[in-house]
């Protein structure tokens, strides 16, 4: 884009924002814009994004045709990646210091276009910073783009959507209308009240106390002890209590659900499975369909209520079973069944014929020793 056209585009974006915002900046270049669905706790909401060579503009479209500016996310330290589960092939994960979230495109192709554009912009921005900051080395810039684990609490975590977990991701207690979901502000996991009764100051929140899960609370306490001066050193009491002063633990009752150990061996979001995703399942031709998450791993079929549950509802070894496709004009090759000794054990239905075929192949592989 020519310099004059770029300036005109930046002015156009600036005027389209509700309120007064300085979008036109020296050296800023417009790269890409588009509407993506943002996954919130309850549902998906349309958001309009503007990608520049130094930042990602995150806005909400208004009825007036203007945009409400939600955040201007710097590309410094930003990470972008796609989920490992094929069921979420249209999604994109954005991680930055200020905000982190999941986006969904209209297709896998559109998702890949955004992934490439943002990844390239992050890489070029990191290299550009070296030019203006001689003290920074190329290795330092490269490390920002690699999959390195950031210190806990230094970046806003991606919150797992409510619909993707039916149980606490720590104690496995089932959520109900009264036993509600809570999000850990350090890792983004969905946990119950009993497992998130702690508060801790987090760097990305300017050390403001925020709800954290038991696991993160313990890790943050370890970090606090590691960074505290040794006993006897000047100013020890004041320094060691700096973070501890915002570490709070509130006793709370636990609503524990007893689950067999075998059902907790594999979580729904495991990355090394043969196949995973949502399917409709029926226990017979006259039984109603249930929408469940399935994982095939080590020739065992695991069934979950949702895609982020840490314990399965049931597990079934596949050895000795056979898989056949149901050829019906109405099913459009989306239906297949699992049989044991020529008796129908389960009937499955995929969203499309392509997915059904991949599942059939995964099942067949699992039934063979």
TrEMBL record:
InterPro entries, per the entry: FYVE_RhoGEF_PH, PH-like_dom_sf, PH_domain, Znf_FYVE, Znf_FYVE-rel, Znf_RING/FYVE/PHD
This protein's source sits in the domain of life called Eukaryota
Q: Where is the FYVE-type domain?
A: 162-221
| Annotated PH domain residues | 29-123, 272-368
- Localization annotation: Cytoplasm, Cytoskeleton
- Transcription as UniProt keyword: no
Record keywords, A-Z: Cytoplasm, Cytoskeleton, Guanine-nucleotide releasing factor, Metal-binding, Phosphoprotein, Repeat, Zinc, Zinc-finger
Q: Which Gene Ontology terms cover its molecular function?
A: guanyl-nucleotide exchange factor activity; zinc ion binding
Protein name from the UniProt record:
FYVE, RhoGEF and PH domain containing 6
Cite the PANTHER family for this sequence.
Answer: FACIOGENITAL DYSPLASIA PROTEIN, FYVE, RHOGEF AND PH DOMAIN-CONTAINING PROTEIN 6
Q: Which PROSITE patterns match?
A: PH_DOMAIN (PS50003), ZF_FYVE (PS50178)
